Task: inverse folding
């Protein structure tokens, strides 16, 4: 289905949605983009609900719903029996329910707002809380989303084959493929690695987080600030 035809389908389906489900939804948009699932291969994010402005109890929350035509088209290529109307209705309904759930859960809204503020500080090179991303949307075990950025908790180790001047590999899974990135020698943990070189990147960044192991001595000493680096990922074959 072409992009324009998909937009027309969404417009027709919106007329079937009860008005109470649309209360506070400022826009339902169709994007041409393709958004890969962060863990599973051949799965794509079809839509999302983006919380915008709110105050008080959260009942006045305004949200934007986005449906990704590129993701629908990618799934249709993998599944010849793909039913565009059914999948579009299911995705639209799911994201509108998500909007209603946001409105009913002020604590989740507050946590997400705080995570978004901390992520902005990270992007600007300012100080930030190293656990902030866990207050974002949980996509899978150890995988979280804040705005358009996806945070993946990786594992560090010392296998052979590291480039000169590097200390460890951090390994992680993205969209069904295992990757690794080389960490600078003696880098201070926790470390946030902004990753380049993925076959199917998300809308924002993929940030691999190598956490610092907690210690009983943390009660008496200052926990170090997180490190932030950029690295190119290598796919792990075989």
Result:
């Amino acid at each position: 289905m072409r992009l324009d035809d998909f937009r027309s389908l969404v417009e027709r389906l919106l007329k079937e949605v009860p008005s109470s489900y649309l209360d506070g939804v400022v826009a339902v948009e169709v994007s041409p983009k393709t958004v890969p699932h962060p863990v599973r291969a051949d799965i794509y994010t079809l839509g999302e609900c983006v919380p915008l402005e709110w105050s008080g109890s959260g009942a006045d929350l305004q949200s934007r719903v986005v449906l990704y035509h590129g993701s629908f088209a990618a799934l249709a290529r993998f599944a010849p029996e793909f039913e565009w109307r059914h999948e579009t209705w299911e995705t639209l309904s799911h994201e509108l329910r998500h909007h209603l759930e946001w409105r009913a859960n002020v604590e989740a809204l507050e946590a997400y707002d705080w995570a978004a503020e901390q992520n902005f500080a990270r992007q600007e090179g300012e100080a930030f809380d190293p656990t902030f991303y866990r207050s974002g949307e949980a996509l899978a075990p150890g995988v979280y989303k804040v705005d358009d950025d996806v945070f993946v908790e990786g594992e560090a180790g010392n296998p052979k084959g590291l480039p000169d001047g590097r200390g460890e590999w951090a390994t992680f899974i993205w969209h069904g493929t295992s990757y690794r990135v080389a960490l600078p020698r003696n880098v201070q943990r926790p470390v946030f690695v902004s990753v380049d070189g993925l076959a199917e990147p998300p809308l924002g960044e993929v940030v691999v987080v190598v956490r610092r192991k907690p210690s009983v001595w943390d009660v008496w000493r200052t926990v170090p600030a997180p490190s932030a680096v950029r690295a190119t990922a290598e796919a792990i074959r075989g």
In short: The chain has a mean pLDDT of 88. Helices lie at 3-14, 69-78, 84-104, 106-123. The radius of gyration is 20 Å.
